[in-house]
Structures are given as C-alpha cells and as structure tokens.
Amino acid sequence: MSEEAKFTIEVLCPCCQAKLTVDPELGAVLHHELPPRETHSTDLKAAVEELKGEAGRREARFKESMEAEKEKGKILERKFKELLKKAKDEPVTRPTRDIDLD
Q1: d(CA 31, CA 13)
Q2: 12 strand-pairing partners
Q3: pLDDT, tens digit, for every residue of 12-68?
Q4: 3-state secondary structure of 40
Q5: What distance in Å separates the CA atoms of residue 23 and residue 30, rounded to the nearest whole number?
Q6: Which residues contact 34 (CB under 8 A, 6 or more apart)?
Q7: Buried/exposed 19-43: b ≥16 CB within 10 Å, e otherwise
Q8: pTM above 0.85, yes or no
Q9: Under DSSP, is residue 43 helix (H, G, I), strand (E, B) or coil?
Q10: Angle CA 30–35–36, to nearest 5
Q11: Which domain of life is it from (predicted)?
C-alpha cells in the first residue's frame, strides 16, 4: 500500500453511485469515477409507444400550467386585498433612521 492510499477513504455516492476518493485531513475529494452507464436495449416498437405516451403527458402538464396561470391572477388579487386590509388596520409608524439613534 502506498503512503497516499493509507490516508484516503473511498465512498460511494448515494445519489449517482459514483466512486469518490476523499482525503480526510484536507476534507477534499481527490478523485471521482463516474458510474458505468446503463445500456437500454429496447426495440423500436416500445420506443414509439413510449414517445406516444410522453406526448399525452406533456399535453396534460401544459393544460395544468394553463389552469394555474388562469387562477394566478385571482390568487394574487386575493393576497393583495388581504395585505391591504392588514396594512389599514396597523398604525403608521415612522421608520428609525441612523441619524435618530445619535
């Protein structure tokens, strides 16, 4: 074993399964190896079906975002009215300036 290998730690990343070599004294990653890529062997028919399904999901997400945008104005108006009502109820106070503290 080399002198450098005695003081390093090898860790597997829980997210991407990459192999990290860490020096505990420096608190730094010395080396990292990316995980091997998974090869997907799918036939052409399965790929076409997946793309057709994805178009439907994309359309559904678009409709959801359009509905959210339509409701956004109502929500902002309601929030504005609530904050305006709250501001009317609070007394008006002057902000403290730096010069006032001297």
Answers
A1: 13
A2: 19
A3: 988 888 999 988 888 788 888 998 887 766 688 888 888 888 888 999 999 999 998
A4: coil
A5: 7
A6: 16, 18
A7: eebbeeeeeeeeeeeeeeeeeeeee
A8: no
A9: coil
A10: 140
A11: Bacteria
